Amino acid sequence: MVQSVELLLDSQVDATVRAEWRRLSSARLPSQDRITAESNRPHVTLGVATQIPADVEAALERELPSAPLPIRLGGVVVFGGRRLTLARLVVPTTALLTLQRIVYELMVECEGVPPHIVPGEWTPHVTLSRRIPATDLGTAIVVTRAGSRDVVGTSDGIRRWDSDAKREWRITRRP
Fold this sequence. Notes:
This protein is an alpha+beta fold. The protein has one domain: Cyclic Phosphodiesterase, Chain: A, CATH 3.90.1140. The chain has helices spanning 11-26, 54-63, 94-107, 137-144; strands at 3-9, 43-49, 70-80, 83-90, 125-133, 151-162, 167-172. Strands 1, 2, 3, 4, 5, 6 and 7 form a seven-stranded antiparallel sheet that branches. The radius of gyration is 16 Å and the shape is globular.
């Protein structure tokens, strides 16, 4: 299934996104809030593969910086076709794009790296909802109030997510 490297958000940005999730749930719309696993948290996916070998895992832990990055959530973005994904854009900075490039370069030889992770194709975002029917999209955007203001904060470390084992672990933390 999916192996990923994800940038976590500070507590204030995390709380703002969770509030947007709850507003979607309260409106009876699809929301990330409905995923009850403890590992479900707002994040920015930096890299994805179907497998990450031990040597790449070690390189990620060794080479990724632990200093927090500035994070700014901007307006909303919609991905998909028949069923849509609603997300908050993360305003790209040189530091964020550099970090994502490092992750990509470490993972490029991994099995199952999708084309949307290639630097220049990658869209930094935080998912609010998956599988929204097109007829509910306008309502979802209005109830989240996600586009009403930017949210400013910092990152709070990088984690690895293993969807096969349903397991997460930190590979960097804030110093």
